[in-house]
Amino acid sequence: MTAILDLHPHYYYTAAIPISNLSQYGDTLWFSCDFTYPIPFPVLNVRTQCLNISVPLDWNNSTTSETISIFVRRIYADQPNKPNTKQLWQLGGGAAVPGSVLESTAVQIIQSIAQIFPQGSIDIYLYDKRGTGKSSWLDCTLEDFLYNFAGCITVALKHHNRIKHNTYTNTAKDLKYLIDLSAANNEVYVMGMSNGAYLAQRYLTIAPFQSNGIILDSFPPPDRTQILLQNINIDFTGLDIMVKCSQDNFCSQMFYDNNPIRALYELKMKMMHNGSICGQILNINYRDLSEKMSFCLLGGSFELIPAIIFRTIRCSPQDQLVLKNFLIASQPATDGTQEGISLLFEWNHNWSELWSSIYVPQLSCDTINEIDNTLLFTQKILQTFCQNKVQGDQAKAIGYPQDEYYGKYSNSTIPVIALHGELDQAIPSWMAYHAADQYSKLNPNFRLIKFPYTGHVPTGYSPEIGQGSATTNNCAYKVIVSFILNGGQSIDDTCTKFIVPFDFIGQTDQIKNTAMQFFNTTDLWGKPFTEPISSTTATAVSPTVESSIVGTIIFSITIGGYSNFFFLYYLW
Among 13, 48, 234, 334, which has the highest number of CB atoms less than 10 A from its own CB? Predict the structure, then answer.
């Protein structure tokens, strides 16, 4: 098979080598490579190597298909002889996101295992899914997608609809092939996060007994995915945060009559009828505010939501300044600087599978929009879907037919653990419980593990009480490490009983850091402001040097180790 060069010169890398078995070559095909991004903590005795491998563009026609290059990174402990090595293949969230975003997570897992399993080691493999990162590109760059969508469609059509072969099934078969080449006699585990968990489930359906265990972190059920209902799930999570505020002595007393939920409804009504002072001064309506608050529906930032509502109601000069900072910091990334992300690839997957469902009745965008108008927390997902429906030339370039694996649960009986944050806005509890029920009927070795006070992707944020910073202290990692070290036969999940509870006051370092990133101050609630507020007495505040600083951190915000740039990609 002959590898096809990338469509974009600046994504060109060493040509892929078709090989029959990696083990027969030892380490001769791997080359030294650096981490893509700086690791935000000390890296001790960990090395990384890389490799390019050819795979068929279409596995259904593997003998005649043209080929593409898949980029693989191996991260491992620097140990002599490396006895008892296990393999972990990590699949990140978002169909469009390359494996490089998981490098820090991989190092954390390796260093955690080295501390408690000195007689052995683990090699972690990250691969850039076809069409992303340093693997062969099948469409245009992120920047082209954002600013020249028509041009992207032209590129996709010009190259004979190659993007239509970027299916979840082909991507899962890539993974099966890579594991076949590299596994030798090692134990192999596959871990998927969010969208990567959807891919891991497809892999498990295709290769039910190839690996020794599967880890699903925030897993979309194969038969219950529909983007048009997503805002309802987001609203449930937002309301759950407000309920917890109502149950907290400090948080509830910040609102009139100790009723934060009623205060939120009243704020929405005022903003909808132009009766909110801060809404007028900041020139923002409630729909926009709710969409921006949804960026705080992640572990480590939930507590900001009641404070945002409180400050919007009070609307002191200090509040106006903080809210200006928040509105800037919650802008989506549009500069196209993140290397290796393919949004056209993302849409190709989403329109074909994740944004449709054969089991959920299809509703019109107008109907869903009317439903969304009744919600307190929303995102722009529906607008993105409805404003960019595939039609005309786009329909020729984007999307693919659903195959025999779509909507199916694997009948594999290998050990599977599923991690679920009980405040997951993307995979709410009813979805996780539904999927767990389906798997439990098929697999006696399936187990659902719940993480309280935790949102989407517990490996991103699930700190234990009194165990250090949220960056290095992670209960989900402990669960995963115990699963792998015990060969998938047992796990230690006692740490889930000691997850850090909500800090509505804003005393912990994590909340102070998050407040600084969003508010440009560590003070969640601000100093008392008792002057009566009316539309005639409120004073608008112009941005100052202090408030403009936050403009330099637009979407480089990090919550619990994850860049918020990838929020929508971890979402699906």
Answer: 234
